[in-house]
Design goal:
Blueprint: H1 3-13, H2 19-49, H3 51-55, E1 59-64, H4 70-79, E2 81-94, E3 97-106, E4 117-121, E5 129-133, H5 134-139, E6 147-150, E7 153-163, E8 175-179, H6 180-186, E9 195-202, H7 209-219, E10 226-229, H8 235-273, H9 275-283, H10 288-315, H11 317-324, H12 339-366, H13 369-373, H14 388-403, H15 408-439, H16 445-452, H17 461-496, E11 500-506, H18 510-520, E12 525-534, E13 536-539, E14 542-543, E15 561-565, E16 573-578, E17 590-594, H19 595-601, E18 608-613, E19 616-628, E20 639-641, E21 652-658, H20 666-675, E22 680-683, H21 684-723, H22 725-737, H23 742-779, H24 788-815, H25 818-824
Parallel strand pairs: 3-8, 5-7, 15-20, 17-19
Antiparallel strand pairs: 1-9, 1-10, 2-3, 2-6, 2-9, 4-7, 5-8, 6-7, 11-21, 11-22, 12-15, 12-21, 13-14, 13-18, 16-19, 17-20, 18-19
Helix pairs in contact: 1-10, 2-8, 2-10, 2-12, 2-21, 8-12, 8-17, 8-21, 10-12, 12-14, 14-15, 15-17, 15-23, 16-23, 17-21, 17-23, 17-24, 18-20, 21-24, 22-24, 23-24
């Protein structure tokens, strides 16, 4: 064993000194980071491991508003074992009540892979059987044998579904499964109806789902076929998890950044406690590298212990979340340890420790023995060469975060913003110290003592300003964003939105539908628009299937899109490029596109876009781009055709109903279900409730992650104050000797902490509020309406906690008795 390692082992046996702060900050930060990355990885692992079961096969081919042609059906059958289903949204009549459901007519033996898990009962065995989702059964107290009517057919509940294959993973409505003859009996599948035919395949061993899917699309390029392979199973859950995990990861990295301040403080306090030992060893001929290894050994061992504790805590999160939220999550996280995620979190911890602890240890090793033994204040200045390793380690942290994130640009911008905020709060700390120096002579002696502590040698004002400011600014920003979004969902949207959306209204029944609305809801605002569905199959003649990847933000290329045609520009839309066509337009096909989707695809006015409608390709020239106010909650279509193109295709109508104030829609819904059972009714209040539930869960997760950052900031504060205990004890004793009471000394320190935290809390509130305003108004394009009392209470509560924490950390110094303290000098 080398001399440095022997010295390190003996030194560590004397105690860890100030390294408890390193242990606490690093363990908490790594635990938060490991928890976030492990949970995201565990959900992805479940999706990857059960992709075939979640998809219901190795490959799924789907097409909107039609079934496969005989030629297409024969080509599908040659690929492998096929199981067909037809899915559409419908309104189920349950006694006097109605409910929106996802209705599927399935083949016998469906799905091609995986299975349907039932709570009780069995799958449909006859045309009058229906298996319903557990949510529907619980909401309406339906058991086996209960009657339910869908369309023009009556069914009996044969089974209650727990889980079934779903390519997207998310569903707006609970599922109902019936046989294909049962679906035919409902008479809901008609020309123009919004339904999807899906063909799930179990492929032969060794077959490539991606290659077969691509080949099928290329053989039938104008059929509007959507291909989903095992790698895209539960795509909705995957995207939601990745984006949520990305947000939580950035917060966890912010917490680790705040913890680095504590690590640096801990390393500095530890090095200060070993200054005399280092000086004596230098006098006796110890080499600098052995002394560096001595200090590095202690720090490394404590860092490894902290990282081990943090990763162990983070490794348990997937299993805990899986147990606690089993009924909420559509996919249960894999409870096994996510080794790659844990290793990545540990690497982050090691790199941050290296970046934060290197300079304090290097300064301690280079200190001159003569100055140390004379009792001088640490006179070692930072050598520029000492900054090389920390800068490289910090760059490695940033690079690792960017390379392993779902969005490199967002991560890079966030890191840059965090660094800018750190400099901002560091500058604020320096300004506080300068202000205390300049104006500290004013006021009484207690006030002067408190303010003087902000700029005395060794004061941690700057470090504490950064730690406290970053944590509170993050918390205020997230609270402001969450509060504004919730206010929009609970207040503005319900106030502006129509009460009902209705789908699949036969165009031939428009007059009958209007008559029902006029009878049941007199004075209601009723709006109808034509509706079709179809996928975008080509851009400027290039097939979408030939794209290597769909660009970020090009959501119009994912699956089928809602289509309509209109003479006049819809309300809530504004043409930003090109021209809207004349009301009497008659000519070649034209379309108007959403400007955001067009930018993502780098399209320009005059380019062409091909959309498959009922299997027939329609190539249209782009006439204009529109900005769409999606908050209007009217009929907002990303793709609108000019008149003269889609009128001859079978289409249905969509409608919105906004009744007069205080009027109930229940009577209209019941009459609609009885007279026009093919019409699907969506209550806006139900959708808002679902979205609110998702946002509340996301908000809680974000707040929990932010709490980790706050806890680390408080720990840094307590550790920094505790690190100055020797100085504070000396000052307390001297003050008591000249007649100061414990209360006066406590008041002086309270003024110190209040002045520091008050200024930083104010700045944190302003920066956090400004960031929230920017995100809400610019990114989300919503009004900024946070819960102001709660938002203001957050920094005030943070200030109180900071002061109390600092006073608690300083209390042992205040309790020191003069006689005992003087004997120890």
């Amino acid at each position: 064993m080398s001399a440095g390692l022997k010295l390190g082992r003996r030194d560590l046996a004397q105690g860890i000194g100030g390294l408890w702060l390193l242990l606490a900050c690093l363990a908490i930060a790594v635990a938060g980071l490991a928890a976030v990355t492990s949970l995201s990885s565990a959900i992805a692992s479940t999706i990857d491991g059960q992709a075939r079961e979640l998809l219901g096969g190795d490959l799924a081919l789907s097409v909107a508003q039609r079934s496969a042609t005989p030629e297409e059906r024969a080509a599908i059958a040659r690929l492998g074992t096929v199981r067909e289903s037809v899915t559409l949204r419908s309104t189920a009549q349950i006694g006097a009540q109605t409910a929106l459901v996802d209705l599927s007519g399935i083949d016998q033996g469906w799905p091609a892979a995986g299975k349907i898990t039932l709570v009780s009962g069995r799958l449909p065995a006859s045309p009058t059987d229906a298996a319903i989702g557990r949510e529907l059964a619980e909401r309406y107290s339906l058991g086996i044998g209960a009657p339910i009517r869908i369309g023009y057919a009556d069914f009996r509940v044969s089974g209650i579904i727990d889980k079934l294959p779903a390519p997207s993973g998310f569903a707006l409505a609970p599922p109902v499964l019936v046989s294909r003859p049962g679906l035919d009996a409902t008479r809901l599948v008609q020309p123009g109806s919004l339904y999807t035919s899906s063909y799930r395949l179990a492929l032969p061993a060794g077959a490539s789902p991606q290659a077969l899917g691509k080949a099928f699309q290329q053989r039938f390029p104008e059929g509007g076929w959507r291909v989903t392979d095992k790698g895209e199973a539960a795509a909705g859950i995957r995207r939601f998890t990745e984006r949520t995990g990305q947000m939580l990861l950035l917060i966890a990295l912010g917490a680790l950044g705040i913890g680095s301040i504590g690590i640096a403080s801990a390393a500095g306090a530890f090095a200060a406690s070993r200054r005399a030992t280092i000086a004596i060893l230098k006098v006796h001929g110890a080499r600098t590298r052995d002394l560096a290894l001595m200090l590095g050994t202690s720090v490394t061992i404590l860092a490894l212990v902290a990282i081990l504790l943090g990763t162990l805590a983070g490794a348990t999160v997937p299993a805990i979340v899986g147990q606690a939220a089993a009924d909420v999550l559509p996919v249960a996280p894999d409870p096994m340890p996510q080794w790659a995620a844990l290793a990545r979190s540990a690497l982050f911890g090691l790199l941050v420790t290296l970046a934060a602890a290197w300079v304090p240890l290097a300064k301690a090793v280079r200190a001159r023995p003569a100055a140390v033994l004379r009792g001088d204040v640490d006179d070692a200045r930072t050598d520029r060469r000492d900054l090389i390793v920390p800068l490289l380690a910090a760059a490695a942290v940033a690079a690792l975060a960017i390379l392993t994130s779902g969005s490199a640009l967002v991560t890079a911008v966030t890191i840059a913003g965090g660094i800018a905020l750190a400099f901002l709060f560091a500058g604020a700390g320096k300004l506080l110290a300068l202000a205390a120096r300049r104006f500290g002579a004013r006021g009484g002696p207690i006030t002067r003592l408190g303010l003087a502590a902000l700029h005395r040698p060794g004061a941690a004002t700057v470090r504490l300003s950064v730690a406290l400011g970053l944590g509170l600014a993050l918390l205020v920003a997230l609270a402001g964003i969450g509060g504004s979004v919730r206010a929009e969902l609970s207040g503005n949207i319900p106030a502006k939105a129509p009460a009902l959306f209705m789908l699949d209204i036969p165009a031939a029944e428009e007059a009958r539908f209007r008559s029902l609305a006029a009878t049941q809801l007199p004075g209601a605002d009723l709006r109808l628009v034509p509706s079709l569905r179809g996928p975008v199959t080509a851009l400027n003649g290039q097939p979408v299937s030939a794209l290597k990847a769909i660009p970020e933000g090009a959501w119009i290329l994912r699956g089928d899109r809602g289509l309509t045609f209109a003479r006049d520009l819809p309300e809530g839309n504004q043409v930003v490029e090109g021209r809207w066509w004349p009301a009497n337009y008659s000519g070649p096909p034209l379309v108007s596109l959403d400007i955001e989707a067009a930018r993502a695809l780098k399209l320009k006015v005059g380019d062409t876009i091909t959309v498959a409608v009922l299997g027939s390709p329609i190539k249209a020239r782009i006439a204009s781009f529109r900005s769409i106010d999606w908050r209007s909650l009217g009929f907002n279509f990303a793709i609108i055709f000019a008149p003269g193109t889609l009128e001859q295709a079978p289409y249905t109508l969509m409608a919105t109903v906004s009744p007069t104030k205080g009027a109930s829609t229940l009577g209209f819904e019941r009459a609609l279900a009885a007279d026009l059972p093919m019409v699907s009714t969506i209550r806006v209040s139900d959708v808002v409730t679902q979205v609110n539930t998702i946002l509340e869960g996301l908000d809680n997760a974000i707040r929990l992650a932010t709490l980790v950052a706050i806890v680390i900031g408080i720990t840094v504060l307590a550790g920094a104050v505790a690190a100055t205990r020797r100085t504070r004890t000396r000052e307390s004793v001297l003050l008591k000797l000249v007649g100061a009471t414990r209360g006066q000394v406590l008041t002086a320190q309270g003024i110190e902490f209040a002045a520091m935290s008050g200024g930083i809390v104010t700045l944190a509130f302003l920066t956090g509020t400004a960031a929230a305003w920017g995100v809400v108004t610019r990114l989300f394009e919503l009004p900024f309406k946070p819960d102001w009392p709660s938002l203001i209470a957050l920094p005030l509560a943070g200030m109180v906690v900071a002061i109390l924490t600092a006073l608690a950390a300083a209390w042992p110094a205040l309790r020191a008795r003069p006689a005992a303290a003087l004997r120890a000098v």
